[in-house]
Design goal:
The structure holds 2 protein chains of 2 kinds. Chain A is elongated, with a radius of gyration of 22 Å. Chain A is mostly helical. Chain A contains 13 helices and no strands. The N terminus of chain A is likely disordered. Chain A has one domain. Chain B is of the alpha/beta class. Chain B folds into 2 domains: 222 residues, Rossmann fold (3-Layer(aba) Sandwich); 61 residues, Alpha-Beta Plaits (2-Layer Sandwich), CATH 3.30.70. Chain B is 34% helix and 27% strand. Chain B has 12 helices and 13 strands. In chain B, β11 and β12 form a beta hairpin. In chain B, α3 runs parallel beside α5 and α8 packs across α11. Chain B is elongated. Chain B starts with 19 loop residues before the first strand and ends with a helix. The chains are: A mainly alpha, B alpha/beta. Chains A and B meet through α1, α2 and α6 of A and α3 of B.
Chain lengths: 268, 321
């Protein structure tokens, strides 16, 4: 049609055909590194996930009689510490998962569809980053706790904290689900209060005792995890209810996230 | 004779596979037919403007071209591949209208991150240089002007060294200087022989930067030809006259006049598009029974509106367009 249209490339192709096969791995290290850097740059996230939970712990958990009262294999302060570690990890993983909503709102996920990045790699990276933040949050609460009077059998405390972190994966799925479901740019402004409510209703902040609230608590997503996380410290077994609660909610959140994720990446 | 017939047939099966091959594309949203049967064949190396008013179906067509949307009917092939594979192999990339950037990243981080999604790319420094953003690498995306963000999108699109580059209204919302810089960068790249398809509703952009203009309206292609041909179409005048019972011989006589581009019969009126309106008027008034002769100038803008506007539904006024 014109001289331009028929001219051949003046430079040798930098991208030979053999290199055009898309990457297949689920983890892309530069992507992961930049995502972690973004996380540490986000001041609001850091305040919510790394400062609030230890602050709550200091307010609720350091009364003098808590340090001298045992729950079985640790003192009450340690019991409150692992509860707050779970709360911190939960906030962190929910926020990490929910960050997809901001990226959808900014059109970034759409842009990614114009690259070879597999949607599965994107979601995996989001979950890994959320779990990293969850780990940092749980460790910060633990460090503050141990420095301010939490005491007990070290192995059992470590197991509790590890369970809190592992269990928070359920909330990474919750965050993803909500991030894909809610259109808001600041989805954590909605989810923050919801998580606080869940923490209260599930007995994470204050003991449930008996009665109506204790019955309601059994169906709240934090209930099962709270019991499992505390079990090493109390030496009590884990009730069937707690396991059913965790497995049930995990199934709901994971399938919800998967459903919305598939919708998001489907061609319409 | 119809408008498109005055233009050469658009690129059809020539030698080698087509860079872009759209056939019978249809896409509706509810009752709105956004794309209503678009065929488009683009040969490798062509620079094509996809020109049309807002709502003509340009973005929907581009979404289908890139595999972001599924056509209700029709097929898309890019160098013989489906869009998903072409994207996965980095053979096609796109600069979208807006969005698609993370505001908290820097310009350099955005390019590095996008490069990590490919197995091999042009170097980060090279694409930033070519897109004219080498000097703002450390700037946060949120602090970049619209023009800078668009050049960043352009840099990202250059990373895989694509065979086909698609741009959806790339200069929307840019100031004059930003537009000029953007087109200069694109023009320099086009000289490398890449196939480029850009959507625009600016006639002057299509005219200045494309080898070929595809005019779309109401989800259909209404004209297709070189920029010069489209300009030529628009540069003439329209002579219309009442002339009942004009037969094919009479129409042929009109077509044989110098400068006549097309002759169209509409009811008892004959419409002649021509470069020489005086000659046509003289012929009509002296050798035929024509009466009520009107001569109107047709600017480029006028032709654009006539071809794409609602006032003249293409189906009845422009024949088979």
């Amino acid at each position: 049609m014109s001289t331009v249209s028929t001219s051949t490339r003046t430079s040798a192709p930098a991208v030979p055909d053999a290199s055009r096969a898309p990457r297949t791995g689920l983890v892309n290290l530069p992507f992961l590194a930049i995502e972690l850097r973004r996380l540490l740059r986000n001041r609001r996230t850091l305040i919510f996930t790394l400062i609030m939970p230890p602050a709550f712990f200091l307010i609720f958990g350091t009364a003098k009689e808590y340090k001298t009262t045992s729950v079985g294999h640790a003192n009450v302060t340690a019991w409150i510490m692992v509860s707050m570690a779970l709360y911190g990890a939960m906030l962190a993983t929910t926020g990490g998962g929910a960050s997809v909503s901001v990226e959808r709102a900014q059109g970034w996920t759409r842009q990614l569809r114009l690259t070879p990045l597999r949607p599965a790699t994107y979601v995996t990276t989001k979950v890994v980053v959320a779990m990293v933040l969850g780990l940092i949050s749980a460790l910060v609460v633990t460090a503050v706790g141990l420095a301010s009077g939490a005491d007990g059998e070290a192995g059992r405390i470590a197991l509790s904290v590890a369970l809190a972190w592992a269990g928070s994966a359920v909330f990474a799925a919750f965050g993803l689900f909500m991030g894909y479901l809610l259109p808001a740019e600041n989805v954590m402004q909605i989810l923050g209060p919801i998580l606080a409510l869940m923490a209260f209703a599930g007995g994470l902040f204050v003991p449930l005792g008996d009665g109506l609230f204790a019955d309601i608590a059994k169906v709240v997503p934090t209930y099962g995890l709270a019991e499992i996380v505390r079990a090493p410290l109390t030496g009590d077994g884990v009730s069937v209810w707690a396991v059913v609660n965790v497995v049930g909610w995990a199934a709901v959140f994971v399938s919800g996230a998967a459903w919305r994720f598939k919708r998001d990446t489907a061609r319409v | 004779m119809t408008f498109t017939e005055t233009l050469p047939t658009p690129a059809s099966a020539g030698s080698g596979p087509l860079a872009i091959d759209l056939r019978g594309l249809h896409k509706s949203f509810g009752t709105v037919r956004a794309v209503d049967g678009i065929d488009l064949a683009v040969r490798p190396g062509e620079v094509v403007a996809f020109l049309g008013p807002n709502g003509a179906g340009k973005t929907t067509t581009i979404d289908m071209l890139l595999g972001l949307a599924r056509p209700d009917a029709g097929t898309v092939a890019l160098h013989g591949m489906d869009p998903a594979r072409a994207i996965a192999e980095g053979r096609v990339s796109a600069v979208m209208q807006s969005g698609g950037l993370l505001k908290d990243l820097t310009v350099l981080e955005t390019v590095q991150l996008t490069a990590s999604f490919f197995r091999a790319t042009r170097s980060v420094a090279e694409v930033m240089e070519r897109a004219g953003i080498a000097d703002i690498g450390s700037r946060q995306v949120a602090k970049c002007s619209g023009g800078q963000q668009q050049r960043l999108r352009f840099a990202l699109a250059l990373l895989p060294d694509p065979d086909v580059l698609v741009l959806d209204e790339p200069t929307t919302g840019m100031d004059v200087e930003g537009r000029r810089d953007f087109w200069n960068a694109l023009r320099a790249d086009a000289a490398r022989g890449r196939t480029i398809l850009f959507a625009t509703h600016y006639l002057e952009e299509a005219d200045a930067y494309a080898d070929r203009i595809v005019l779309v309206s109401h989800g259909r292609v209404v004209a297709d030809g070189s920029a010069a041909q489209v300009k030529n179409l628009a540069s003439g005048r329209l002579v219309s006259a009442r002339l009942a019972g004009l037969d094919e011989r009479g129409a042929d006589a009109l077509r044989a006049l110098p400068g006549v581009q097309s002759v169209e019969l509409r009811g008892d009126r004959v419409l002649v598009r021509t470069q020489d309106s005086d000659g046509v008027a003289r012929h009509l008034l002296t050798t035929t029974a024509a009466s009520d002769v009107e001569i109107t100038a047709r600017g480029l803008e006028d032709a654009f509106l006539a071809l794409t506007g609602d006032a003249t539904r293409t189906d009845d006024t422009l024949g088979s367009l």
